[in-house]
Amino acid sequence: MSVFKSFFQAGFECSTHRRRHDARRLDMTAETYHDLHALADYRALAELDICTVRDGLRWHLIEQTPGIYDWSSFLPLLRAAQATGTQVIWDLCHYGWPDDLDIWSPAFVERFAAFARAAAQLVYDVTAEVPLYVPINEISFFAWAGGDEGFISPFATQRGTELKLQLARAAIAAIEEIRSVDRRARIVQTEPVINIVPASDELCEIRSVEEYTLAQYQSWDLLCGRLRPDLGGRPEYLDIVGVNYYWNNQWVHHGEPLERSHPRYRPFAMMLGDVYERYGRPLFVAETSIEGQPRPAWLRCMAEDVRAAWAAGVPVEGICWYPIISHLGWDNDRYCANGLLDFHPVSGARILYDPLADELRHQQRWLASAHDEIMLEIQAG
Fold first, then answer.
1. Does a structural domain hold residue 205?
2. What domain range is 332 assigned to?
3. Are 296 and 356 in contact (CB under 8 A)?
4. How many Cβ atoms sit within 10 Å of the Cβ of residue 243?
């Protein structure tokens, strides 16, 4: 039996980092009006047989004074989930943190662990459901974007490895605190999977690309203790593996994304197999989507890849369309039409994108209904 209530899932974009060109803090939960419409959003998804979602806490709003927590931005989401019977995978840190806190300092680890404990205690006190948490979303991407490329906070360059280690420390400390409150809690670790192909046959480039591609596993390896065990990682901290995959997760080194028709494009099913072979943990597609009219075709492709993974004995537990609500771009505020639900930019009114909804229903009729039977077959060998 899957840990998830529904095979097809929805992800609410909840990034809260600062952007480089004007240092403005994003709040995607508010910018998509999800903070106001959480109850209606969850109900709308339930009508589409989506009962599991990813959503997030906004740490910078909750802990504006060190050690003092104001849950008023979180409780409406928690109560909406209860009212609709929605299972939520809660992101505790989705690229953002309180303004007074230095992410490079030991205090960051301590404060985040305390915040995670307080959040877990609140959820434990309010609901009887087994909770699911993502401590820190996409440590690898976070470290690259904020520590190497400097296009999101903390706007550093050439410090990606340092930031990755710091985020791993914080995630490990948070898991320990969460489980000290609630031993039932399930921990979801989400990371992007990638495939890079060399642009030439030069040996130095081939080796560089191989090393870069293998780095996609570093965060998971840190969390489970395979890499830098002095940080405190343990196998049980890699509980449920979330694989994030978009149309541009494969590319030519220093070049353009690979089309699915490219001879060096690697089937996503094989990439899922790589992750399962390496860790042997329950896994699901934690993020996937594309913009515009290709949305239905992309969902169809993802479903086909999951079928192929199942045929190879890989127990993929779900597919999460992320983001479920179209949103404004991080850097330029352009409207990104990548959701199952579009929204009116002034009123926030939701508009179902019918072509994607039709494809979802089609895939649910076969893929979701076949899931339990196929999982039993895989477990039986």
1. yes
2. 8-380
3. yes
4. 23
1 part of a folded domain = no
CATH assignment at residue 165? 3.20.20.80
Quote the pTM value: 0.96
Q: What is the pLDDT of residues 136-189, one digit of tens each?
A: 999 999 999 999 999 999 999 999 999 999 999 999 999 999 999 999 999 999
Phi-psi region of 64 (alpha: psi -120 to 50; beta: other; left: phi over 0): alpha
Smallest CA-to-CA distance from 41 within 104, 88, 105, 102 is with 88
Mapped onto helix, strand or coil, the DSSP state of residue 128 is coil
Q: Are strands 52-56 and 8-11 parallel, antiparallel or unpaired?
A: parallel
On whether residue 3 sits in a domain, the answer given is: no
CA angle, 55 then 56 then 58, to 5°: 155
Is residue 65 a part of any domain in this protein?
yes
C-alpha–C-alpha distance, residues 354 and 200, integer Å? 43
Residue 95's contacts (CB-CB under 8 Å, 6 or more residues apart) are: 15, 16, 17, 137, 142, 146, 152, 153
Other CB atoms within a 10 A radius of the CB of residue 114 amount to 17
Number of domains in the chain: 1
Q: Could you give the 3-state DSSP secondary structure of residue 49?
A: coil
Residue whose token pair is 């419409």: 37
- Say how many CA atoms lie within 13 Å of 155 toward its Cβ: 10
| Cβ proximity of 127 and 78 under 8 Å | yes
